[in-house]
């Protein structure tokens, strides 16, 4: 029984009452506890989920969007589109009634039109665009999704029609265009800033078409938005939206319990049972498109032998790992590179049983001497896909010790680990991946293709021609059934060659108060509050 | 006096340059560059990487980069953050008041309590109070500050609910950041109860951060007072029949304070280091977190100039303390 | 009138206790210091005989006993006196094993900064024209940077690990030794015995190491105990930030870092390592205090 001496809540109540009276409406602000500070608000420049939440989902829209809570595409700024028969031309017809935000630093003189779409893509595509050099490190998603090679051109046909020309067929293209980096900016605002020589304002005082208008960012503390009354889908029910930045998950939970925030993102898996028991709180959960895995460097000694890889796979007790790290039921043991919710998941494949004797036999057969040292690189903090990599590493260490392998765990700072892993210095590296657009190719090409093996993104440095051919074909075809069949075959190849130990597919959880409605948890790990309200 | 000050200032300049060189070298020695970290696990297109490095000026030879850097510094240009493109100075001034506010609160807490405890312990030497104060203050700087913070949070915020768990102020208050000092801004704003709320949020972090300075000041005051109380002039003052209070506070404390002052100055460095950990635990949006994240993101301008600014501050404080010490103690003035 | 009895001349120096005995008597009078010494002996004992003293293997994961409470709480087991951590490892064994690391870190970082520190301090004191101020400027620069950030940067460059942690801590502690030595040296250099030695033709090394240095040792010894304890705290802070020793090594500070998530459910995983750090550092500081009081002649006659 907590002490009733809660000065804070008393003051909160008084303040809240006064605040509501001042605002004049019974609509309360929606406060969301987030896990990190946004890197900036020019969402095309950044890759993290929290920046997408704070910018792309609030301030901006894209040509198409994912239906809330799914990976299906629905119209957004484009009300309809046509794809040419050869799959190389996409023509989007834009809505005519979308307004940009009006703030004290910008007043739009026209509605959103094709100029804005062209501007948003050209600045990332065209090296001669005046804004291309304004970014500091480039446009990470645009580059890594291969749009530089994929997009031949983006042209305005008329004020409300835009034509995209591709260099090859790309089935996931529509899904790609629903991603944060494809957000539509105001060309007028861009011109205004360029003329005034204040290009950094695009990042610090953003303008978009989205459900919320940027008010203020108190660095590392909170982001404040207010509802956009002219939002084309209707004004959001929440009058004001506040992101409270609390990096510690304990703090987020404590704030949620005290009703300081109504939604807490990324609760700790261990806290889930407690939250479920609490009558004033509830949990939304969904299978996320994530995989936590250990990539084995197939170019290193011992690791190049598939028997060794299989031995390690069956020596590691995945069930125990998933239970200890995530808690029972909060994650599922992984078999394939991507989770079952994606197209073409091969249900027939299963994990071999945890068998230490068999593992020892395999290692002996492969000629691995007792006491061989293998390195495992892991980062020193957690991420969404893997909240506690060192814990998993230590469990594997204990398991492998039982079969005569000494695991040397190298905990490294994130930047250093990235560099070394991409250089292939590891025997094994602990990694995770979150899908961006719901397409299997988004998992397989960046992580397991031969191209990725060359540039280091494929930590396993695994290049299997059969696999590569299968995923190349699947990327080109548009018929989902055909693609599914190809992906199933690809997974069989993957399973036989075992470049990874697929560990877990996590679930997405969001904790909130009982009176929050209209929140749709998304498998893409993004959070959109356009329809959320506190009753 | 003037030559003393001039000499001290003269020594500052090479120190300043040394710091710029050290931070420049340190951050560049850490493996990984900003572009790679930004891309994360995604692939880095070599052409794009080269272009970005060129844009950032990072492909030039190191000595050229250093000359560029120092040149900009000479014009007062602290550069822009590689991540947000906001000027480093702007970011610093938006975050530093939070750290400063916390540090000042911690120092006030430590100073008042420490001086009091030290003086009383010195007066009642050998008593239970004396041993108690000494024991507690020894414990105070024997413990890991982050553990202490976690324990206090566990006890006072979570179990008892007496203090808030994190942050500078309740989120429902929209306080425009006029000075950056929450206590001042809340007074300037027209939100009811916000000042008290800000104070409420400040208590626990200030206590945690101020624990070590409290311990050091208490001990220093005590030993300094003990020395002073043995002096002849104190005996004379007592013999003259002055009241004990007057003896202690007017004659004794004034002289005892001199070494305590030096300690005060040195604590600034400790406070800034402790702030990094305290800010992490209490989600206090100050420069500690900013710098640690900048190191992780290889945001060179932020790391170099952020650390430079802090170092300047520390040097400034030590410099002032040196001067003050010189004022108070003529021997130092002439032989230092 | 009595015949004056012949008085045997007694060698006065025999009546005074030897300096070591004198030191020990002064030290033993300080109850706190003795308590600290005893606790430290306990820690040293644990460190030396850890494999035999610890009830379990510190790395053994009892997967069925994750987060068991200490024996005096509900759900506690006699098997695990102080409970287990999030991977099911016995906390008592890990704390005992951790004492090895903490002592190792403390000792090696002190040695690694003491020796160069004394050396540089001596040089700075003996060559006050150019070399001295240069060295002092360098130390000023290092002192101007917040020590934790400096340590973080060093570990980021060298990579995490036990040795690199020790190096980082040693580098960060260096300036205080240099300053202390230099101050002490400069104080001694004006003394008569130094002038006498110089006149007697002592070479520079002899002057530095044999004549002057032994008389500067007192404050250095005290500083050494202080930095021993702050080395343990610094290692814990680095471990807390995730930059310390590699798992599964049971360093006390790293144990705190991973325990942060369990503060509500399993408070013992947080409190006990922190308490151990507190007690050990407290013990060292008590000893350091006692040392300083015993070595400082001014306080010898104070009541």
Question: How would you explain this protein's 3D organization?
Answer:
The complex is a heterotrimer of chains A (535), B (336) and C (303). Chain A is globular. Chain A is α+β, with helices and mostly antiparallel strands and 535 residues long. Chain A contains 19 helices and 20 strands. Residues 1-10 and 13-26 of chain A have low confidence and may be disordered. In chain A, helix 11 runs antiparallel to helix 13 (356-366), helix 16 runs antiparallel to helix 18 and helix 18 runs antiparallel to helix 19. Chain B is 77% helix and 0% strand. Chain B is mostly helical and 336 residues long. Chain C is an all-alpha fold and 303 residues long. The longest helix of chain C is centred in the C-terminal third of the chain and has 37 residues, at 204-240. The model of chain C is unreliable at 299-303 (pLDDT under 50). At the A-B interface, helix 1, helix 4, strand 10, helix 9 and helix 15 of A face helix 2, helix 3, helix 5, helix 7 and helix 9 of B.
- Average per-residue pLDDT of chain B, rounded, comes to 81
Tell me the major beta sheet of chain A. Answer: 12 strands, mixed
Shape of chain A: globular
- Greatest interface and its residue counts? A-B, 66 and 66 residues
Report the structural category of chain A. alpha+beta
How many angstroms separate the termini of chain A? 27 Å
**Structural classification of chain B:** mainly alpha
Radius of gyration of chain B, Cα only, in angstroms? Answer: 24 Å
Helix coverage percent of residues of chain B? Answer: over 70%
Number of strands of chain A: 20
What's the total count of β strands of chain B? 0
Question: Mind summarizing the main beta sheet of chain B?
Answer: none
Report the sheet-strand fraction of chain A. Answer: 15-25%
Subunit organisation of the chains: heterotrimer
Give me the number of helical elements of chain A.
Answer: 19
- What is the beta-strand fraction of chain B? under 5%
- Low-confidence runs of chain B: none
Number of helices of chain B: 14
DSSP helix fraction of chain A:
25-40%
Q: Characterize the overall form of chain B.
A: globular
SSE run of chain B:
HHHHHHHHHHHHHH
